Amino acid sequence: MPSKPIRSFASDNNAGIHPRVLDAIAAANRGHTVGYGDDPYTEAAVAKFKEHFGGGKKDNDIDVYFVFNGTAANCLSLAALGRSYHAVICAEGAHINTDECGAPEKFTGSKLLPIPAPDGRLTVESVSHAYHGIGVEHHVQPRVISITQSTEVGTVYRPEEIKALADYAHERNLFLHMDGARIANAAASLGVSLRQITRDAGVDVLSFGGTKNGAMGAEAIVFFNPKLSPDLKFMRKQAMQLASKMRFVSAQFTALLTDDLWRANAAHANGMAQLLKQELSRIPQVKLIYDVQANGVFAQIPTEAIARIQERYFFYVWEEAKSVVRWMCSFDTTEDDVKEFARFVEEVVTGR
Fold it and tell me: DSSP state, 20?
């Protein structure tokens, strides 16, 4: 067996830090500055968020809070929107429902109402089935609809689909939260701005992902209505998410949001996923399960092939019962990586 490659297809979390982001961290490592976010690096990063998401007129147009990870961004976002007797409507496969160890329910006190979403996307029709028991004290009260962009199965919400959900929510005094762990990949896939699939589409609160896009432990919470976040700074501290040396988190966002580095990174990862799709489509024993719209490829392969491929490439089994695996591409995935991986998959599944 050849030596293991230095890059795998398990997760875009497994990639390193983009060189420009690493340079930004190093540039911030000069002298002393005030901690906990009262520094020029954080001020510059917030200004970049306002450039991409704000209205451009008022200093308090949006509120931005930096945290270490996506679970914290999601939990704090949801906690700001509801109380313990409220409920969050989400897809069954949503990260908040399947991969956060119950953290959203523990830290918000709210109940999650997961509903089927075969392609990862909620619709007004599907959400409507969870909207009931309104005003009845025996039932939790729906308060938030949470969607993921791009979804956990690599599909992407179009702006009009988000707008339809936002309109449905707002007509019923609900909020729309977006888990944007891979929002950069979605925007790059659609060829739109970050604002067009968030604020302009009616999203109330966004968990903005930086880590999967080339950053290191850097996520953000963006409130498009600052009235929703009057106590977030206290909640963030209680949640142990206030960085003492905030400048090293903030500087990363300035790098990502300057000269559209975020888009270049995401577009490259998406492009590598399309190449992987193309290479795998030639292999009869590999069946693609979901449309490849962002940087993830989901495939059904012979069960006996999984362990053999994993001996060389680390990746996750997505649905064990159906032998479905997930292969993710990153900003640093190369064409050679993809072709070498596809060749190895073919060798294993064909028994050559």
Answer: H
Place of tokens 């147009």: 61
The candidate with the shortest Cα–Cα distance to 122, out of 174, 71, 80, is: 174
Residues 166 and 201: their CA atoms lie apart, in Å, by 7
Least confident of 2-11, 114-123, 186-195, 312-321: 2-11
| Contact call for residues 296 and 326 (beta carbons, < 8 A) | yes
The residue whose two tokens read 């996506």 is 70
User: Which domains does the chain show, CATH number per domain?
Assistant: 19-256 (3.40.640.10), 261-350 (3.90.1150.10)
Token duo for residue 1:
């067996």
Q: pTM, whole model, 2 decimals?
A: 0.96
Phi-psi region of 220 (alpha: psi -120 to 50; beta: other; left: phi over 0): beta
Could you give the CA distance from residue 247 to residue 239 in angstroms, rounded to a whole number? 19
Token duo for residue 225: 């209505």
Distances 176 to 67, 118, 125, 225 between C-alpha atoms, Å: 20, 20, 15, 12
Helices 261-280 + 183-190 axis angle, to 10: 80
For helices 335-350 and 303-310, what crossing angle results, to 10°?
130
Q: In what order do the strands lie in the sheet with 63-67?
A: 63-67, 219-223, 205-209, 175-180, 141-148, 86-91, 111-115
pLDDT for 58-75, tens place per residue?
Answer: 556 899 999 999 999 999
Classify residue 322 by its DSSP letter. Answer: G
d(CA 136, CA 139): 6
Which residues touch 304 (CB under 8 Å, ≥6 apart)? none
Q: How many residues does the chain have?
A: 352
**pLDDT for 123-177, tens place per residue?**
999 999 999 999 999 999 999 999 999 999 999 999 999 999 999 999 999 999 9
Q: Is the dihedral of CA 277, 158, 181, 332 positive or negative?
A: positive
